Amino acid sequence: xxxxxxxxxxxxxxxxxxxxxxxxxxxxxxxxxxxxxxxxxxxxxxxxxxxxxxxxxxxxxxxxxxxxxxxxxxxxxxxxxxxxxxxxxxxxxxxxxxxxxxxxxxxxxxxxxxxxxxxxxxxxxxxxxxxxxxxxxxxxxxxxxxxxxxxxxxxxxxxxxxxxxxxxxxxxxxxxxxxxxxxxxxxxxxxxxxxxxxxxxxxxxxxxxxxxxxxxxxxxxxxxxxxxxxxxxxxxxxxxxxxxxxxxxxxxxxxxxxxxxxxxxxxxxxxxxxxxxxxxxxxxxxxxxxxxxxxxxxxxxxxxxxxxxxxxxxxxxxxxxxxxxxxxxxxxxxxxxxxxxxxxxxxxxxxxxxxxxxxxxxxxxxxxxxxxxxxxxxxxxxxxxxxxxxxxxxxxxxxxxxxxxxxxxxx
Length: 411
Description:
This protein is an all-alpha fold.
């Protein structure tokens, strides 16, 4: 097994790798966010109700669970590069195939298959970034990558509404496939090989033993659960805001798109702040700083909807404050979780990915059930509960990290 030396600075050639990876990630996200303004058109064309709107994202996230258990260890054995390239090509082909769906069930199935691409991003792509660059540089890169990927939910609804004014929703998927093709070329030419151990086992028995060990690891599990639960309010907003704003509050498609801007601009601001702090503060410190806006923002949203269930502007404001906090914590928490175990980074990344995406899917469905049974207030209370649970998990994560570091010093 060859040893790859992480880079401490970026050359132009090295930069193309994370740019190509984030272009692929951008394509996977915008494939959902651009279609959101048109989801009511999709459900109308297939003669089903608005409850199918969130099914698109749920199916997408469930697809992201299916292969992570295999892809992480497989990339530990074969290398990150060939596994990643296969995943990008698969997503491109499923985007093209969506043009021919004839029912809502077929549409949701294609969304599920496209969601499999999330397996490659989390279990393979992010692990490669963490291995290719040193700690402070990888945190900065991950934060900047998050900013670019956040352009999807920021620009996606606006671009989707504009696109639908002159073309149909099916044509969008050709554009998504085209963007993915560009990412595929960039990764093929510039992605380095950071892993690969032909002696690593991918037998069912070996994988089960490895994942069972990770499942018992308090730090890996508390970090993974915290990443997932802390992101639920954002994903629930992405999934249900077309119903909340367009269907129930009667706003236009363009106004709906504009109301996404403050939430995701706040997340970008949080990521930029994290990028500036990454080399100046210990990696744990942004987690503590981010807790304040997360809890405050979700509390404001809950109080506002308790006073007036139609106060969607205050709901948006509260989620924007929360978004800033989320931007501050995600990249650092992912890095800490990935390196909290000595197991292969592909396997750890796969476990993190499986746990977080399962949490995402369950969280979205819980938020959906809460909204359709109790309106904006129950939706906001679910979000606040997620914020408080996130806080408890991060405290547990940092406590366990401190305990292990003390044991290491003693030894």
